[in-house]
Design goal:
This protein is mainly α. It has one domain. It is built from 9 helices and no strands. Helix 1 packs across helix 2 and helix 3 packs across helix 9. The longest helix is centred in the N-terminal third of the chain and has 42 residues.
């Protein structure tokens, strides 16, 4: 009987130690790797949804470190194309006044009208940010002021700073590359070759990030 009790105690101690190690690993990932992933994904035009699991994000780290853009695009495209219908439903519930625009963006995506869907999603992302998302390098101070008004802690402020850091989508017209998702050149009709699934889903990822990681802190 004593042996069994001792064995049970040792097993519980082992399980507790394992749980504590897993907890510490999770905390380390959230505070060290997560900000790295957020900022480096944006470099390649991608943003995360609050629905991406920590396990999936952990798998993305070596992909980003090795700069394997093909694997990165494959993973992100696969995730967002599976989630677009549910995401739009959630967005409509939160923003009923944008229902027609969001439904049209989703319909155009399924009909492979990627040019139209991409513009609609980018415009909604900017609209939710009160028109302060795409202001160029000189106007980023307004976005920083907007973020500063939100009730966030230091950690989340660091995460949201990705919206004010230089990124692919913010490239000026003179620096955009053929087929890239660059808002300024698209909205001004200069970039005409952005109509593809990847860019469409990148626009969705930006909108999703803003809603999941910024809008939750805005006073209702």
């Amino acid at each position: 009987m004593t042996y069994r009790k001792d064995a049970d105690i040792f097993r519980m101690m082992a399980e507790t130690t394992k749980s504590m190690k897993m907890f510490q690993q999770t905390q380390d990932f959230i505070h060290k790797d997560f900000p790295f992933l957020i900022k480096n994904l944006a470099v390649y035009g991608w943003y995360i949804s609050g629905d991406i699991s920590l396990i999936d994000l952990a798998h993305l780290k070596p992909v980003l470190v090795s700069k394997n853009t093909q694997k990165l695009d494959e993973f992100m495209i696969d995730f967002y194309q599976k989630e677009i219908d549910r995401m739009v439903d959630v967005l409509i519930k939160r923003y009923p006044g944008r229902e027609a625009l969001l439904k049209e963006a989703r319909d155009c995506y399924h009909e492979k009208k990627y040019h139209a869907s991409t513009i609609l999603l980018i415009s909604q992302a900017d609209g939710i940010c009160l028109g302060k998302l795409f202001l160029g390098a000189g106007g980023k101070a307004k976005m920083r002021d907007h973020l500063a008004d939100l009730d966030t802690n230091k950690y989340m402020t660091g995460i949201l700073s990705v919206l004010t850091d230089p990124s692919t989508i913010d490239k000026p017209t003179s620096k955009h590359k053929k087929g890239e998702l660059t808002r300024h050149s698209i909205m001004h009709g200069i970039n005409t070759e952005y109509g593809n699934k990847k860019n469409n889903l990148q626009a969705l990822s930006l909108l999703s990030f803003i809603v999941d990681f910024m809008e939750k802190y805005r006073d209702e």
